[in-house]
Amino acid sequence: MADVISIDREWVGAELVGAIDQERALSSGATARAGSPPHDSLTVLYHEIAESDLRHAAILEIVATRYGHTPRDPAQGGVSGILGQLKAQVGELGSLPFQQVWNDVAAKARWIHWLAAWAHTFETLGDLDSARDLASVISEEKEHQDALQSSLNRLIQSRATADDHTAGSGVIRGT
What we know:
Shape: elongated
Oligomer: single chain
Helix content: over 70%
CATH topology: Ferritin
CATH architecture: Up-down Bundle
Structural class: mainly alpha
Radius of gyration: 18 Å
Largest sheet: none
Distance between the termini: 47 Å
CATH class: Mainly Alpha
Number of helices: 5
Order of helices and strands: HHHHH
């Protein structure tokens, strides 16, 4: 007889709702960053990230419905979007362009790890559809992380070689 896994569906659903809100906030932050990018060359990338984060929120909502979540109108999540934009703008005050990109690379990495833990959990629970859904989100998040990393590399190289003094100077401190 196979072991039956007991799933705390209420907790899983609540965690996924938090992830939906996080993706929407990330989208709002990327939209704000696209409007005032750390470097002009990043406008298109930040728009792309904002659009994909909204798609990711929709995917997470599909997964959450498998655990009892009732979808809500995305407009109802407007407060988290506004807070995401404000947080992004306040966090950038006085920061250098490459520090802003560094923060975005680090945030993507943390988010990818969180998503990977959930994909693993769903696979362990036998929910292969949810694991696959998250794997597709992870893949796109990694592409954006790589693009941000390449941009960070160029900004730092440009500043180090004195090609672009708009990148600023200073030390990047990881968290």
